[in-house]
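Notes to self after the call with IL:
- keep both proteins in one doc
- input above output, always
- annotate only the second one for now

Protein 1:
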Amino acid sequence: MEEATVIALDFEKNIAEVEEKIERLKQLEISDGLDIDAEISRLQKKLTRLFRQLYLHLTPWQKTLVARHPARPHCLDYVNGLIEDFEPLCGDRNFADDPAMVGGIGCFRGQSVVVIGQEKGSNLETRVKYNFGMAKPEGYRKAQRLMDLADKFKLPVLAFVDTSGAFPGVEAEERGQAQAIASGIERCLKLKVPFVSTIIGEGGSGGAIALAAANRVLMLEHSIYSVISPEGCASILWRSASKVKEATEALCLTAQDLRRLGIIDEIITEPAGGAQRHHTEIITHVGDVIARHLKELKAQTGDELKRKRTDKFLKMGWRLAKSE
């Protein structure tokens, strides 16, 4: 998976040209038996240099495109890479099961945990199956049910956030979407077990916050997290889709902006070229960071975890209000 060819984004034109040259040389070596390792090595070093130069200075809109790249690892990639003996649990015990919200019990580096996350899917068939990661009310109620389970059996909760937002359809509103999200956030704050949430791609609107009111909120370097999508913001404030880049700047949705504002706790660095080009490496790195935070949180009592989590978000609101 890590060596697979990844479709280049529009601003990666120079990178795409070098990648194409490397691929042609590899095919030439295979077909003609020529020794061209030195040239391939030179181009690989050039490629790494280009990645570092480009990804060090990405604009917020470019980061948005990277965060949405279809080849980035999704929730189930992290579950398969980090969680042993994962047992999915389905249904909200009220209406139905929501495939967009993945959840279950497994073992993370010797520790039993409850895992919850949004799954976007990796191709057309799976994207339709998982509704592009947009959960309905039953998905958020399933997440609450799993949090209840975690509290009952004293299991840490790991969340992987990757959604453009909750499903906006009429049927979702009819079944109480807003209430499901609000009660989901409230349930997060009441947990008496360690809770670590990682934003692995898009963290959009209340659909993301319902899984991110955690003791520790981590965020991949090229992910985004905001109260609304750039497109939605542009349509409301400017009434024009052409203002999407301006909206992205105004939203302060990058990991770097959010760390500066105190919204997230840590930025997880990505390899040169982004997580979409290095699945195995980034999944292992994310696991290392989560393990470190879990170790710190396990030293606290349930009441301490709940109180500090609640205080954290209350202070966050006061701090942002004063800054305005």
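Protein 2 (the one to annotate):
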Amino acid sequence: MRLTIAVIALALAGPPVIAQEQPKRFPAVLAGHALIPADASVAPPGDAPADLAISGKFTGPGNTRADNVGTIEGTSFLSDKAAPRKTGYRMPIKGQSLQGFSGIKTVGDGTYWVLTDNGFGTKANSPDSMLMFHRVKPDWATGKVDVVSTTFLSDPDRKVPFRIANEATEKRYLTGADFDLEAIQPIGNEIWLGEEFGPYLIKADLSGKVLAVIETQVDGKPARSPDHYAVLTPAVPSGSATFNIRRSRGYEGMAAAKDGKMLYPLLEGPIWDAEKKDWEKVDGKEVLRVLEFSVAENKWTGRHWKYLLDVAGNNIGDFNMIDATTALVIERDNGEGTADKACPDGKPAPDCFNVPAKFKRIYKIEMTDANAGGLVRKIGYIDLMDIADPKGLARQGGVAGKLTFPFVTIEDVDVVGTAQIIVANDNNFPYSAGREPQKQDDNELILLDVAELLAAK
């Protein structure tokens, strides 16, 4: 439910009690819409292993191998409450899929850094999906996007502390079996990446060579998911494994201070409290940690903030700073599709949306010294399910002067100038169909006029 005025009882060692006011909704107007086709791909580097010439070979049932191109049907099944729906594409594919932008950063010259997600969703099905980031340039006039450059991640100096999929090769290109990259921040001549499996921070140079892999600490203790290399499966059914971050709830967004001195990785899910045997909560509601990492000192500062989800079960999509103390955060539900294409009575069917999108927002938040250790302040938001399009700029999805962005995963937002932001989806190729029930989503980038939101105090 929406957070109304609430008094948050914090621990005695924490900051003073702060009243949380209901954030105000602000308008969003479409200023540009550009697309990358769903099946866009790039060729692997010439020195990559032959295995990487075809990707998606392990996306079938049980992750069993399928070497022949186009033998595995793509289906949308991202929600456990939805019926599988055909997306119209098949795996494996020749080359490497460009799909799934999971992070974005404005360069300032009309280009943007974007980050391809881990591949096809899991470690098990992505050992032939290369990790890469790109520099792209949308042409808002034509609706096309130029991929200016692609950089592949590699570990020739063996900085990764565990065995990787391409361990025995010279260049040691990284894949989705190694990491799940979700956030990108260029600082000087280095690229910092927020990762979800560990979760880890990864530092690389501009050529994509890994310089360091940094373990996460929360309150001075390790924070690990079941996909962390040190978390082992127990030998017997009665055994247990020790971890405190749920699978696929590591870093989903990571902001950087405007001066580049600090990184602010944001966990997608709450931390498990072993003593209370419950997820971390404030006033009975789950909160997500925003951590602080010093780039210059190469260490966690110990400071943090807490992000309160509006609705239980919501997720974070991306996180970027506006200025020294305010930032943009995507908060969204796990639905996809619009209500006009909803299944009758909500019953799952392969040609409709039985879990349509309802909550797709971008919040402006405030993080200050005064609220460190406590809740970030939600100042206001825009609704991505209700974008005004008075000029008819929408290239798809526009109806009666409105555009909706009804994707299950919206994972990219950053500021463009003083009045605009850019937003993009992770299209989860070939598993996401949010525009039409049986049509794979494209990679969509939208430019929004949101002057009132950015100016809000």
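Annotation: The chain has one domain: 23-455. Residues 23-455 form one domain.
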